[in-house]
Write a structure and sequence with these properties.
The chain is an alpha/beta fold and 1054 residues long. Helix content is 46%, strand content 11%. It is globular and about 110 Å long.
């Protein structure tokens, strides 16, 4: 199978094989040998990080197989599919025996396989829903609850004037509800019992949550019946509990499993929850081996019960189990070992696994085992880690695959790290994101949703499609496309604006311009997708395949082939293409799984689910064998693994440790603590939960630090609003507050050239010049001055507009030019973000204001009705944000109506166009409204829908208003006004939330002074150079990244 050919009708079976090289022999200490040879009764193996617990389990399994035991009678249970896969591979490499079943599994995999065992006429094949599918299902049911009057949900969870939308429909509430259901399932608490307990202990949300849970189960049963395939659909939270019930009601099956699995071994037992332990007790016999370390538990958020491990161990010992404590730690060099032990010493409870000694026997390549660095920003933090990794790779020969960055949770830090690694050429794996937010995959999902009609084709959607890889456009080319579409229309018969022309071009293929390749690619894809949807039995895989197989890049090459070619080249871009292909395969696998679960569902149902997905699904990248790449991963993903060098990043106050209570509203953690400690008072339970949370965070920290073998880097950011956490200060210890670390120059060719260029103006100029010459002779093109940006002669020094030609000037552009010439020039030539919702709304309000003038009989309620009916064209988004925006828009219309009703002058016209020439300036514009008084003098009105109100003094000097007054004075409104006398102008702020309408007045202008200023501006606009100025608008400037006086844009000229 090649990467460019994603399976269409079926997914082929792929078997990955490791190198046939024989594994290195394992040196074992006496305690490990004792554990491997032990037989006769259950065995409990305790040991801290690096003591070889997993190695002992592997060797114990191999020992049994070599002594003649059937491999299929041995079952290894662990946590995480990657860990299970690694265990299977390690054992397979140590024996030549054939295995018919997976020897190592997760608890959930075991439970699923048990449910798939056919045991009689009442058997129903199970189908397991994914976490994202379950969350989406919960959200759909909650939407139904809202539509049905909230059912039993209390009023404080209902929408109201004081709330910005429905609390029930927030992702936070959906996640809490799912957690509560999962914790109850894991502890064998059915909905009825949950409601009863809630009433008894004063948890007011448990009863309505239990009522919802019952409906959830009922609707799931209805969906099973509707599917018509007699299959049993199970969500992850109930998989173990359903399996336990299945075994308890089927004694022959339980006996069969006990007979089949003569030996059961469990790795990372501290990660188990009560339900998993109950399942283990149902199928295990006398040959049971359990490995654990309570200090290394990381799965409490998934229901793990590390605090209950001691009680479980005591039960096993009381029943005759033997214990072995592994005391030699082989993983980390002494300095890192001591750091891990010091952190573990701060746990409140005692643990025998802390009684261990360092037995690291290798000679480390790194000369510095531990580096604690405080940086100025998240970007510097990422650059610092990138430098250390690059240096270790180049100077000490450590492969990138033996390096990892461990984070408390995925977020902006992961993005900063990927950028920093990309800048210095370090290949990276470990993208942590849902399919719907994957930038490479999202456009395919978006186009499919447009084809089904689930996604409205508005300006935002058009831009996202055009900016995608198969669109190939950018902001500048999009501006040109819109301008060309407008220019090509017949104004006498076609009144569509640029936005509608763009939408029609993509939607209907109404393309009338030559430079239309991007539009045509999108339209052709959309047409193909719609053609597939017209088939009666279409599946979502068919729709996605039609798009994927036809998508082309701007150079006409199919994206499937392009991504494959780039992936095979390797390097940083190759790794990125590899991840994109993995994500695309994941999308098809998810679609296929959805079709299997709900065979009669339409493609729109899957697309809606995937668009809402907020949980990271199965990431193929993390499971495959990858080349030499650095991994960026969370603590939970790092469990059970080790690397030569580990960077633990992001030790920020409030983030690590994160002591904010999880599920504090619905109280899933309080449910767990009540099961463990009984029905204590709410306050006492909260104290216990907070204490447990603090221990969990320290366990995560302990696990992260103990993944490193010979190099550990710990970093944090120190700035005014973001300080290192107590964990960072704990490692700093007696050294006190560390000075800010400096980020060394990156170990890249471009960074070296940049440094040498800077030194050309210093006393080291001769040396720098000689080195640059050497680099040029070595074919390093960036070292050649001919290729330096800014070093070549300016291509043209001519003015942008010939001195003999008129200079187009708009009233608003004149105002912008006086603020910053560079901003005006860039925005004039494509450097804008396009029409925002606020800009479209402003245009709509102005249009409604014109309607009132043209049709005086139209009422305020009529205007509001028109606004509400056209709102989807103004703002295509859903939810409370759009609703709040509509309310603000209605308020603006109401203020306009009040202003209009209170007007004392006669309205001459609205949206009146004018043209005047002042020197070289040709001013064209449109005035919102002109009024005339009893003496025939004119007064200009300009409506503002923005929130920023200028000062009274600034209004007097406002150049836009002055241009409008000048147009009156110079009779620019040909045939529209009967005079040329202006008595002033006024800004009317409709968005300002106040009882009295806010206005700013400008008195009669000095026409000669304004003419002089306009002439000066026109000369500047037509000149050969433009001046950038620092002003209050810089912070939100759209072209700041290209501004030569801003740090972001200084590279343009340096």
């Amino acid at each position: 199978m090649h990467w460019g050919s994603i399976p269409h009708m079926s997914t082929p079976s792929i078997k990955l094989k490791r190198s046939p090289d024989a594994p290195m022999p394992v040196a074992l200490d006496p305690l490990q040998l004792e554990a491997i040879s032990y037989r006769g009764s259950p065995l409990l193996i305790a040991g801290g990080p690096g003591t070889g617990k997993t190695t002992v389990l592997i060797e114990a399994a191999v020992s049994r197989i070599n002594s003649g035991q059937d491999p299929d009678s041995i079952l290894l249970l662990t946590y995480g599919r990657e860990s299970a896969s690694q265990l299977r591979d390690e054992i397979a490499l140590r024996t030549s025996e054939t295995m018919n079943e997976p020897l190592a599994r997760t608890f959930h995999s075991l439970a699923y396989s048990i449910l798939k065992m056919k045991t009689g006429s009442d058997f129903h094949e199970p189908i397991l829903l994914s976490g994202p599918e379950q969350e989406n299902f919960i959200e759909q049911l909650l939407q139904g609850d809202v539509a049905d009057g909230y059912r039993k949900w209390p009023t404080d969870l209902q929408d109201g004037i004081d709330k910005k939308g429905n609390p029930l429909l927030t992702q936070g509430f959906i996640r809490e509800l799912r957690d509560l259901i999962m914790r109850a399932n894991e502890r064998g608490i059915p909905p009825e019992a949950l409601a009863k307990r809630g009433d008894m202990v004063g948890e007011k949300y448990w009863a309505p949550a239990a009522d919802f849970w019952l409906r959830y189960k009922q609707v799931m049963a209805i969906r099973e019946d509707a599917a018509g395939d007699a299959k049993m659909r199970i969500d992850p939270s109930e998989l173990i509990s359903v399996t336990i019930s299945y075994l308890q009601s089927n004694e022959p099956l339980r006996a069969q499993l006990q007979s089949r699995f003569k030996t059961i071994m469990v790795d990372e037992y501290q990660e188990s929850d009560p339900a998993q332990r109950a399942l283990l007790n149902l199928i295990s016999g006398s040959d049971l081996v359990i490995a654990f370390d309570s200090d290394s538990a990381v799965g409490r958020f998934r229901g793990a019960d590390p605090d209950g491990v001691r009680d479980e161990v005591d039960k096993f010992v009381a029943a005759g189990a033997n214990q072995i404590l592994l005391t030699n730690s082989y993983r980390s060099r002494p300095e890192i070992f001591e750091i891990g032990r010091a952190v573990a010493s701060q746990f409140r409870s005692s643990s025998p696994t802390r009684r261990r000694t360092c037995a690291y026997l290798e000679k480390p390549a790194l000369d510095k085992p531990f580096d604690l660095a405080r940086l100025r920003s998240q970007s510097e933090e990422a650059q610092y880690i990138a430098y250390q990794f690059k240096r270790a790779h180049l100077m000490h020969g450590i492969s990138y695959s033996q390096m990892a960055v461990i984070l408390r949770s995925a977020g902006s830090q992961a993005s900063a790290l990927r950028r920093a690694f990309a800048q210095v050429g370090i290949p990276v794996a470990g993208d942590l994101e849902a399919l719907s937010t994957n930038p490479a995959i999202a456009p395919f999902i978006l186009l499919a949703r447009v084809a089904t009609g689930e996604q409205p084709l508005n300006l935002d959607t058009c831009e996202r499609l055009l900016f995608s890889e198969f669109g190939g456009a950018d902001a500048i080319s999009l501006r040109r496309i819109r301008a060309a579409l407008v220019a090509a229309r017949d104004e006498s018969t076609d009144t569509r604006g640029g936005t509608q022309l763009l939408i029609d071009a993509i939607d209907k293929g109404d393309i009338t311009i030559e430079d239309s390749a991007a539009l045509m690619r999108i339209n052709e894809l959309l047409t193909r997708a719609r053609a597939v949807l017209r088939k009666s039995d279409v599946r979502v895989e068919d729709l996605l395949w039609a798009i994927w197989a036809s998508a082309k890049s701007s150079d006409g090459q199919k994206l499937s082939e392009q991504w494959r070619t780039i992936a095979l080249r390797g390097g940083n871009r190759g790794a990125a293409a590899d991840r994109d292909l993995d994500a695309m395969i994941q999308l098809f696998n998810s679609a296929q799984r959805f079709t299997e679960r709900f065979p009669y569902s339409k493609p729109a149902a899957f697309l809606d689910e995937i668009a809402r997905e907020s949980i990271v699904g199965d990431i193929i990248t993390s499971q495959g064998v990858r080349p030499d790449v650095v991994e960026i991963l969370t603590v939970h993903s790092s469990k059970g693994r080790q690397w030569e060098i580990v960077a633990v990043a992001g030790l920020q106050e409030g983030l690590w440790p994160n002591l904010r209570q999880r599920s504090s509203l619905l109280g899933s953690e309080r449910l767990v603590e009540r099961e463990r400690h009984g029905d204590l008072a709410r306050l006492e339970l909260d104290v216990i939960a907070a204490s447990a949370l603090a221990e969990d965070e320290r366990r995560l920290f302990h696990v992260a630090l103990t993944r490193a073998r010979q190099g550990l880097i710990v970093t944090a950011v120190a700035r005014e609003d973001d300080e290192p956490s107590a964990y960072f200060e704990e490692l700093a210890g007696a050294e006190g507050e560390l000075a800010l670390a400096e980020v060394p120059r990156p170990l890249t060719t471009s960074a070296l050239v940049a440094t040498l260029r800077q030194n050309l103006t210093s006393k080291d100029a001769p040396v720098a010049a000689a080195l640059l010459k050497t680099l040029v002779e070595s074919q390093i093109s960036s070292a050649d001055p001919k290729n330096w940006t800014g070093a070549l002669a300016i291509s043209s020094t001519n003015s942008v507009i010939s001195p003999e030609e008129l200079v187009p000037v708009s009233p608003s552009g004149a105002e912008t030019f006086t603020e910053c010439g560079v901003k005006w020039f860039f925005e004039k030539n494509g450097g804008t973000n396009g029409d925002s919702t606020a800009q479209i709304l402003g245009s709509a309000i102005h249009e409604f204001a014109r309607l009132k003038v043209d049709d005086p009989d139209i009422s305020e309620s009529d205007l509001i009705a028109k606004l509400e009916n056209s709102w989807s064209l103004i703002d295509s988004s859903d939810g409370w944000v759009s609703t709040a925006s509509l309310r603000r828009a209605i308020s603006m219309l109401q203020r306009f109506a009040r202003y209009h009703a209170a007007a004392t002058r006669e309205v001459v016209g609205a949206e009146l166009n004018f043209t005047i020439n002042v020197g070289r300036a040709q001013i064209r514009g449109s005035v919102d409204r002109i009024e005339v008084d009893s003496e025939g003098s004119y007064y200009v009105i300009d409506f503002k829908t923005g929130k920023n109100v200028i000062s009274l003094n600034n209004a007097k000097e406002n150049l836009q208003l002055a241009c409008y007054q000048l147009a009156v004075a110079l009779d620019g409104f040909v045939g529209k006004l009967s005079g040329t006398k202006s008595v002033g102008a006024e800004l009317v702020y409709l968005a300002k939330d106040s009882v009295k309408i806010t206005t700013r007045q400008q008195f009669v202008i000095d026409a000669s002074a304004i003419k002089a200023k306009i002439e000066e501006i026109a000369e500047g606009m037509g000149a050969a150079s433009f001046t950038a100025k620092i002003n209050k608008m810089c912070e939100n400037c759209a072209v700041k990244a290209a501004c030569p006086i801003q740090s972001e844009g200084r590279t343009v000229i340096e």
